[in-house]
Design goal:
disordered N terminus; 131 residues; 2 domains; 4-stranded antiparallel sheet; alpha+beta
């Protein structure tokens, strides 16, 4: 019975994953985490995996290509040096001045530690580091 329940839960989660593939990074991360959690730990593992997957999915949802193209084409704003490594999914200090991306209010950019970064201006969370 336990094996049937585990298999059914994993199959159901996989079905939801296909639907969620068209959704944003949070939903996709939640579905992926739920599937992995279900396989490893059953229904309780699915719940825990879904929560962890949602958090990870939110942190790494990349910006649209037009945002990346715009940021690369702009003159570099005044560079800022901070005392820590810049990491996708982690916030940069609130003191870093961000330059908004026109027509894409969910994104801004700055040059931090000699790296051009795209950030969420509401949370100062790094969304992408441009090479």
């Amino acid at each position: 019975m336990r094996k049937f329940l585990l298999t059914s839960t994993a199959a159901l989660a996989a079905g939801f994953a296909n639907f969620a593939a068209a959704q944003d990074g949070t939903t996709t991360g939640a579905a992926s985490g739920a599937i992995t959690g279900a396989i490893v730990g059953g229904p309780i593992g699915a719940a825990v995996g879904g929560i962890a997957g949602a958090a990870i999915g939110t942190a790494i949802d990349p910006p649209p290509q037009e945002v990346v193209t715009y940021v690369r084409a702009q003159p570099a704003p005044e560079p800022v040096i901070v005392e820590r490594q810049i990491v996708v999914g982690k916030p940069i200090p609130e003191t870093v001045v961000l330059t908004p991306v026109p027509e894409h209010r969910d994104y801004a950019y700055a040059v931090v530690n000699e790296q051009r970064v795209i950030v969420d201006p509401k949370t100062h969370t790094v969304v992408q580091i441009l090479e």
